[in-house]
Amino acid sequence: MGPDLSFFKELREVQACRDEASLATWPEGPHRDAAILIGQALQMALSWPTAYFLPGDRFNAVAYGPRFRSLDDGGWDMAALAIEGQLSRPVPDRFWQRCSDQDLSLADVVAALIALPQAVEQPKKRWRLWRLSGRVDG
Question: Quick one: which of 37, 70, 78, 89 has the most CB atoms within 10 Å?
């Protein structure tokens, strides 16, 4: 017999009742911004009922999705890519695996993400528009 997965049904039901007021549990500023970003990615990629997660939620539980899916099924990869794409911080290889192995809370994951150095903004290329005058030799 496998593990008792009834926990996921209860978490899904509790999470479905959360609303924007849940964000008050996160400190304002970068922590809350990162929590919103993570919540939106988890809802989109893993089909959580809402995008609102609490600091005490366990990373492993929310990363597996509301119906317990494997981290290898592609849903989590899509969430991680969305988070990393919006974060403006390079996320090291195996960062997410270490978060899982250490059984971190979302508060711990957010703190670790915020502690990552900001991406160095690449200078924008300036394109010169050359005005064609007159004739074409050829």
Answer: 37
